[in-house]
Amino acid sequence: MGILRLAHVDVRTPDLDLSAAYYTEVMGLQQVQRTDDCVYLKCWDEEDHHSLRMRYNPRTGMDSFTFRVEEEDDLHEFEKKVEAYGCPTSRVSRGGAVGQGESIRFEVPSGQIMELVWDIEKTGNMLGKHNPSPVPPPDLPGIAPPRMDHMLVNAEEVAESAAFFIDVLGMRMTEQVLDGNGHQLGVWLAGNTRSPHDIAIVNGPNGALHHWAYWLDDWDSIRKAADTLAYNGVQIDQGPTRHGVTRGNTIYFFDPLGIRNEVFTGGYWVDPDTEILTWTEDNFGKGLFYYENVVSQRFLRMHT
Length: 304
Ligand code: M3P
Ligand code: FE
Fold this sequence. Notes:
Elements: E1 3-13, H1 16-26, E2 30-34, E3 38-42, E4 52-56, E5 61-69, H2 74-85, E6 89-92, E7 103-107, E8 113-117, E9 147-155, H3 158-168, E10 172-178, E11 184-190, E12 199-203, E13 209-215, H4 219-231, E14 236-242, E15 249-254, E16 260-265, E17 277-280, H5 284-288, H6 297-301
Parallel strand pairs: 1-4, 5-8, 9-12, 10-17, 13-16
Antiparallel strand pairs: 1-5, 2-3, 3-4, 6-7, 7-8, 9-13, 10-11, 11-12, 14-15, 15-16
(2E,4E)-2-hydroxy-6-oxohepta-2,4-dienoic acid binds at residues 152, 186, 200, 202, 210, 213, 243, 245-246, 248, 262, 264, 288.
């Protein structure tokens, strides 16, 4: 039983055409489906129906985020555990959402709507399953990341929110930032052994989305992504640089409606017996941006 991976992020945009143009032409995602008010997008190496849903709405923001669970029966088990913790859950039945079957939804302690699903429509990646090419077509536009990697949400009470993800959802803490009184300012949580985080929680307003991140294979791809962003006039928030926390290489930037995106590579393997890494607040600058050693107020205070 467990959390397998981040499946999709569902956000609102007041300009569906502009957002779709940016995510296809600059980010380089594949548009897989378009309905009256929604665009569904995915990366070239993703097997699931989509990893991003953009829905027309006058107010930019996050509708929900969805994690896939390991086993079919996990949905029912998590439903019981989340209810027992005191968060009411609801079921979205098959047919209620594009690209997936039954799911459960609930509000996490920091106010975001989270969804768990097992039954996801597998539409396959761009490479196919028979004699696949190891690389996608060379003419993909934009940054063209192979997959979505992680996300970060804000919480007024980081420790309370982290406890929910650890005790109820069974995720493992890999790193934390503590203030002078030993209170958690940020936590990095993994549901698997592939990487130091599938989700992170950092102090900030309840309900807010800080960013989601796309995986790139190496530092050279990060460099090329910076060129693509600068060429297209995209506002870069931070980077290219390195995180102290997670050790990842990174760039943060804003989509046309002000939602923060990240491209990320590096990190490390997390085995079940890996010990938690702790950062103290006086080293938070290096934890965030190892070379610059700055606690950027724009970075910490701007959210969706
Ligand atoms: C990351 C990451 C904040 C830290 C962000 C870190 C918002 O995005 O991928 O490790 O304080
Ligand atoms: Fe990140």
